[in-house]
Amino acid sequence: MSEVSRRGFIGSAVVASLAAGAAADGDFPFRNNVPDPLLDGKELPTFKFALEKSEGKVMGGSFGKEATVVQLPISKGLAGVSMRLEPGVARELHWHATAAEWAFVLEGRCRTTVIDPLGNSETNDFDPGDIWYFPRGHGHSIECLGNKPCHFILIFDNGYFSEFGTFSITDWLGHTPKALLAKNLGLPESAIDGIPKNELYFTKGPIPPDGQQPPLQGSLKSPPATHRFRMMAQEPHSIHKGGREWRVGVERFPISQTITGVILDLEPQGLRELHWHPNADEWQYVISGQVSVTMFGSHGRYRIETLDAGDVGYIPQGYGHSIENTGPKAARILIAFNTGRYQAIDLSQWLAANPAYLLADHFGKPASFFEKLPKHRVFIAPTESPAHGSAEIK
Ligand code: MN
Ligand code: MN
User: Fold this and answer.
1) Distance of CA 186 from the midpoint of ligand 1 (Å)
2) What are phi and psi of 126, to 5 degrees?
3) What pLDDT was estimated at residue 163?
4) Which of 29, 68, 215, 355 sits 20 to 30 Å CA-CA off 102?
């Protein structure tokens, strides 16, 4: 259907709906004020994908598994990849035409090398709990360091981005005419013989030299903003009886212009309270434990999903939600927002900001009921004191 006829169809549906005295919620075509068919149904679509149970791209013990709009259609604003590299394996030199890359290292050690359009380059080594950020289009590679595998989660600020559609150096040069490449590199044509004809994706070689500045192909010019941040080496951003949070956006990690990353730890029964994000979508990956995630999408639409370790969840911008640890052990969730500047409005804070008499009129409760509610932002429940909420340190 063309854009014009599609608009015409929706327009007449609005007219018909109004003419019928309207209003059955189920007939309203624009629940979100944007014509997104996926979010316009009577029910909310699923917002869960079992990432670690999916197949992905495998080479020996190395793999990349992805969650894009193909696997999880609701996730239009962010995509993610679980990647494991065996010792001696690297994710080859490549760039992304349509997404920036943010990553959190779960296990093992790895090394990245990245170049920016000003010719600055940087090589960084990463341990578990460290993060990186590569702006859209900057060329990079990732090597496993040492004799143990490494495992990390990549997150992209575009749900349509596929890790398997990157611009890889072997794919490019393997398809470039030999004469052209020889001229470009100042070599005889015969010297080009034998390079791969197609994308390698993963390369395999000796374990890289460790603990020293690696030998480079050219001179190294350090970029003004580093690509590495030691996220879990910092104190948590806030601590509560029910859990704690580390949060890193552009204020603390200046290069990360389009992603804010969070590690949320929830004790058993710990609840990240009802809230929404005015300026960003939320992508979730459960590192350990089990959580119940609720999502509210207006028009009475409410959906609850249980996420286990290795599962991905997604909350569109502005949708109400909560995360509760429903398992017997502590839960750890990696969360990313497609903004460098985190914003949220939490239920406790919203209620505390309104007059008790007004709230009383909404819920048929006396004003005294509301006077008992937390006066501050709870953020994670249960809090130190049931009546007076927050133990947030920042
Ligand atoms: Mn990449
Ligand atoms: Mn949230």
Assistant:
1) 29
2) -125, 140
3) 84
4) 215
- List, by residue range, all CATH 2.60.120.10 domains of the chain: 3-229, 236-381
* Cα-to-centroid distance, 319 and ligand 2 (Å): 9
Strand, helix or coil at 151?
strand
How far, in Å, from the CA of 268 to the mean position of ligand 2? 18
Q: Which residues surround ligand 1, an ion (CB under 5 A)?
A: 101
Whether the pLDDT of residue 274 is over 70: the answer is yes
**CA of 272, nearest ligand number:** 2
- Per CATH, the architecture of 236-381 is what? Sandwich (2.60)
CA gap 148, 197 in Å, rounded: 30
- CATH class for domain 3-229? mainly beta
In the DSSP assignment, the letter for residue 185 is: H
Nearest ligand by distance to the CA of 134: 1
The stretch 235-253 carries a mean pLDDT of 96
Question: Which run of H or of E encompasses 262?
Answer: strand 260-266
Which ligand minimizes its atom distance to the CA of 380?
2
* Surrounding residues of ion ligand 2, Cβ less than 5 A: 282
Instruction: Write down the number of H helices and E strands in the chain.
Output: 6, 26
Whether the CB-CB separation of 302 and 296 falls below 8 Å is answered with: yes
Q: Which residues pair with 380 in a beta bridge?
A: 272
As a whole-number percent, the residues of the chain with pLDDT over 70 amount to 85
Q: What is residue 393's predicted lDDT score, i.e. its pLDDT?
A: 40
Mean pLDDT of all residues in 125-154: 97
* 170: pLDDT strictly greater than 90: yes
What spacing in Å lies between the alpha carbon of 261 and ligand 1's midpoint?
Answer: 17
Q: Average the pLDDT over 318-326 and give the result.
A: 98
Q: In whole angstroms, give the CA distance from residue 295 to residue 291.
A: 13
DSSP state letter for 106: E
CA nearest neighbour of 76 among 103, 38, 122, 43: 38
Structure confidence at residue 33 (pLDDT): 59
Question: What distance in angstroms lies between residue 38's CA and the mean position of ligand 2's atoms?
Answer: 21
Q: Is the pLDDT of residue 18 over 70?
A: no
Residues involved in catalysis: 91, 94, 96, 101, 140, 163
Cα–Cα distances in angstroms (integers) from residue 128 to residues 106, 192, 195, in the given order: 5, 39, 34
Q: Which residues contact 337 (CB under 8 A, 6 or more apart)?
A: 259, 260, 262, 277, 280, 281, 282, 283
Phi, psi for residue 58 in degrees, rounded to 5: -125, 135
